[in-house]
Design brief:
13% strand, alpha+beta, 2 domains
Length: 131
């Protein structure tokens, strides 16, 4: 969740180009707020040159953001989150284990009954052909 300097919330889906136009905003990463002040990227004269250089400048900004992303140790956050999810998955599997045993028992009984029905029909067909 980001907020502009005026305290207006900015959607998470806002593109980097729009954030650069806002100039000053705060961003929350791992429940920590960081204030971002975007320096002027292009002067008035450079803005007239063309969009090719703007794209190069935006690529530089994207590289800086990628470096910031890795510097903030996002990977460690992902690993801790993954560990939490694995723990919850193990808890759910423990809760489902009795139901899985019941399911296996029901499947076994169904196979036995299906076998009885198959043999019964086979015998009935044999008796019918003897007459």
């Amino acid at each position: 969740m980001e907020k502009s300097a005026d305290g207006i919330r900015i959607a998470n889906s806002t593109s980097i180009q729009h954030l650069l136009q806002v100039r000053n905003f705060s961003i929350r990463i791992n429940d920590t707020y960081y204030t971002v002040e975007v320096p002027p990227i292009l002067s008035d004269e450079e803005e007239r040159i063309g969009s090719t250089e703007r794209l190069t400048t935006l690529d530089d900004v994207k590289l800086k953001i990628a470096a910031l992303y890795s510097a903030l140790q996002i990977d460690e956050f992902k690993l801790s989150r993954e560990q939490l999810l694995i723990t919850k998955l193990e808890e759910v599997e423990i809760q489902l284990k009795p139901f899985d045993e019941i399911r296996i028992e029901i499947e076994r009984e169904c196979e036995i009954r299906a076998s009885y029905v198959s043999w019964g029909l086979f015998m009935a067909m044999g008796i019918q052909t003897d007459r």
